[in-house]
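ARCHIVE CARD
Drawer: 12
Card no.: 0347
Subject: one protein chain, sequence and derived structure
Cross-reference: see card 0346
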Amino acid sequence: MLHQKITDDLKTAMKAGKEFEAGVLRFLLSSLHNKEIEKKGKGLEPTLSDEEVIEVLSREAKKRKEAIEMYIKGGRNDLVEKETKELEIIKQYLPEQLSEEEIEKIVVATIEKIGAKDIKDPEGKPSVSYGASLGRVMGEVMKELKGRADAKLVSEIAKKRITNS
């Protein structure tokens, strides 16, 4: 189980004196613990599945990516380096991300499967059908990819493909 692997890696990092890595792993375990508390509060079994662990880790990775972008804009290279190192540690526990080409193939197949198309209103603006089509495509694709692709990238590809179909 992924949760146990993170716990074991924390112990190893602590024994090896890797303070930075241990700190990141502690933070991840804290985020996982918060998710367990959230589940328990809803009356569910607090044990996290690997899918739920990946969901939490993906959220943490996304936070790091956003922070890196902001620090780059702000010229804070010291913090960019710190966030990048944290992101690399988190990525070790995430499934391998698909390439843009692989994502595009899945998006195109999904668009064809559900018959999503770009329907413009008389003024040439995307209509409600466009939003509904995009939502259906995103829902299907993200269900299939489950943490193996960035939702922002999937959304960009889906928008481009729906307007070109």
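Annotation on reverse: Residues 119-124 have pLDDT under 50 and may be disordered. Residues 39 and 97 are 27 Å apart (CA to CA).
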